[in-house]
Specification:
351 residues; two-stranded antiparallel ribbon; 7 strands; 2 domains; single chain; alpha/beta
Length: 351
């Protein structure tokens, strides 16, 4: 039975060891912290907006910020990111406006973007189906002789999906410059890890596809950064894909429609919340004298104001034209579309 023990000594860590990383200066450390606070603020405010009825059902990523910020900071701007719904706000780290992502959760067309503008693919809701897409794009970069690589984020449950295995096999055979990043929070909605796999670790799955793997503490942003940077360096050197398993424990509901009290280990949740990733990194920076209270408060304030402005901007978007439901559905639309659209307009006008 697969188990992940709390405090597993096999997991790579940096913060608890007070290690310093080569190539990461003081400004880089502050930039990572700023990214984590931005993501945390986005997540916490989005939960509030959902409760206020201002956005729809929302997938919470509280305490996953270290995985997202650490991994993205190891990339370059030309590299591509393929997020799942748990990484819905990762575009913020590439300069995407927060109101765009909030509009996505509101079901508004303004929430869609051209992936080429940010090298961030569309948010993937089906489990694991973006892994072959990421592998294909990475292979295309290799065929073109380009330096860029791709990273695909997915949860532990995705490693039980055929799409993951197809994408991993494709990348391994063709040595595609791809990072397969698994945020193993040990729950696929309410299905525990031990019901997902008989493997000792999810990283063990990488061996079947001829790629190396790294296991890191998913709440240690610097360990995530270090492992991802090594994976990216391998990809750029033509050595193919790497599997990164970032291990944590989900400390929030799967989504706003979920009631985890019926299945989750609440004591373990409380333990995880006490060691959450933003606070751990904040303590690391303070021990090194890099984060005075004034700078910390400024970073938090900037993120809070950005979110206040973003929700107002999202709510200012005009109602979308219902024609959008029809205009791009079929290359040769049937004649009934005209009457269907007219009937839909009539119904909406009566509401």
């Amino acid at each position: 039975m697969a188990q992940v023990a709390h405090g597993d000594p096999a997991l790579r860590r940096v913060i608890d060891e007070d290690r310093e990383l080569d190539g990461l200066d003081e400004q880089g450390l502050i930039d990572i912290y700023r990214s984590m606070v931005l993501l945390r603020t986005y997540d916490e405010r989005s939960l509030v907006y959902h409760r206020q009825g201002r956005i729809g059902t929302y997938a919470i990523f509280w305490n996953h910020e270290a995985m997202q910020a650490g991994a993205v900071f190891a990339l370059e701007e030309d590299d591509w990111i393929f997020p799942s719904y748990r990484e819905s706000a990762i575009g913020l780290l590439r300069g995407m406006p927060a109101h765009t992502i909030l509009s996505w959760w509101r079901g508004h067309p303004a929430g869609w973007w051209n992936p080429a503008d940010y090298n961030v693919a569309s948010i993937c809701v089906p489990i694991g189906t973006h892994v072959p897409h990421a592998a294909g794009l990475a292979w295309g970069k290799k065929l073109r002789g380009e330096r860029a690589c791709a990273i695909a984020f997915f949860g532990d449950g995705a490693t039980s999906e055929g799409s993951f295995h197809e994408g991993a096999n494709f990348a391994g055979v063709l040595k595609a410059p791809l990072v397969l990043f698994c945020n193993n929070n040990q729950w696929a909605i309410s299905t525990p890890l031990e019901a997902q796999t008989a493997a000792e670790t999810l990283a063990d799955k990488a061996a079947g596809y001829g790629m190396p793997a790294a296991r890191v503490d998913g709440a240690d942003v610097l360990a995530v950064y270090e492992a991802t940077r090594e994976a990216v360096d391998r990809a750029r050197a033509g050595e193919g894909p790497t599997f990164v398993e970032a291990v944590t424990y989900r400390a929030a509901p799967h989504a706003t429609a979920d009631d985890p009290s019926v299945y989750i280990d609440q004591a373990r949740v409380e333990e995880q919340r006490r060691g959450e990733c933003v606070g751990r990194f904040e303590g690391y920076l303070q021990r090194r004298g890099l984060l005075p209270d004034e700078l910390r408060d400024q970073i938090r304030g900037d993120a809070a104001q950005l979110m206040r402005d973003a929700i107002l901007r999202a709510e200012e978007e005009p109602d979308p034209d219902p024609e959008l439901l029809f205009v791009n559905a079929l290359a040769s639309p049937p004649r009934s579309f005209d009457t269907d659209l007219a009937e839909l307009r009539r119904i909406l006008a009566d509401q």
